[in-house]
Specification:
Elements (H helix, E strand, L loop, with lengths): L9 E6 L3 H10 L6 E7 L2 H7 L5 E4 L9 H10 L3 E6 L4 H10 L4 E3 L4 H12 L7 H8 L11 H11 L4 H8 L3 H17 L7 H10 L12
Parallel strand pairs: 1-2, 1-3, 3-4, 4-5
């Protein structure tokens, strides 16, 4: 298309704290004159303070304010703005959280330029922009890989592996300690059957990180 395009114009906001990312997006989207970046900010709150007159927000998943994808998507949707995740995609936990929050798609910053532009065009129109990352996050939301973990087994795994005791997990989930131990035994059995034995709590923690059910811990700033 040429710059003389006179059809519907879609207003885009970008939530990313890297200026080079925003500059690169402006360059890429020059190939799609129907979409225009009208605002950018390093956090959702700051973007919404600038404008809520947006058709779409491109959202990075890891932001300096420590906000979660779930709360960011919720704030954007409350303002009437749909979301397309634009991320390096290094953390499956974050991608899954965004997929559950109801985004229109998940696009990697490393994707081919034409794929990024096409995804933004679709999402700006309110259409789903399916990608392999997004589909995989949705499809695996109730199962960890091929393990076939149930949602309740997953709840127990996430809490216990994150450091909670069996007693504490039981209180948080409203079940008995014996039931927690049954779930943990079944989780361990399934990991063992998959060739990924996890007899200790530390090994369960590693598995939960590997499968994207716990966030990768951030290094403390010195």
């Amino acid at each position: 298309m040429s710059a003389a395009y006179t059809g519907r114009q879609y207003r885009i906001g970008v939530v990313d704290d890297h200026r080079v990312t925003v500059t690169g997006l402006r360059y890429l989207l020059a190939a799609a004159p129907e979409v225009t970046i009208v605002a950018d900010a390093p956090s959702v709150g700051e973007l919404l303070a600038v404008t809520t007159d947006l058709d779409l927000a491109l959202l990075d998943l890891r932001l300096p304010d420590g906000s979660s994808p779930t709360e960011n998507v919720r704030h954007l949707r409350a303002a009437g703005i749909e979301t397309l995740v634009f991320t390096s995609g290094e953390e499956l936990f974050q991608v899954r959280a965004a997929a559950r929050a109801g985004v229109l798609g998940v696009v990697r910053k490393s994707d081919r330029e034409e794929h990024i532009v096409d995804a933004v065009r679709l999402a700006a129109r309110g259409e789903l922009a399916p990608t392999m990352d997004w589909a995989a996050a949705i499809d695996s939301d109730t199962e960890v890989g091929d393990l076939g973990l149930s949602p309740r087994q997953l709840d127990v795994l996430a809490l216990y592996a994150s450091g909670e005791s069996a007693e504490r997990v039981a209180r948080l989930l409203g079940i008995s300690k014996e039931t927690v131990n049954v779930y943990l035994a079944r989780v361990r059995q399934k990991y063992a059957e998959a060739g990924r034995p996890s007899p200790t709590k530390t090994e369960l923690y590693k598995r939960a990180l590997e499968d994207g059910w716990l966030p990768i811990p951030r290094r403390k700033q010195r």
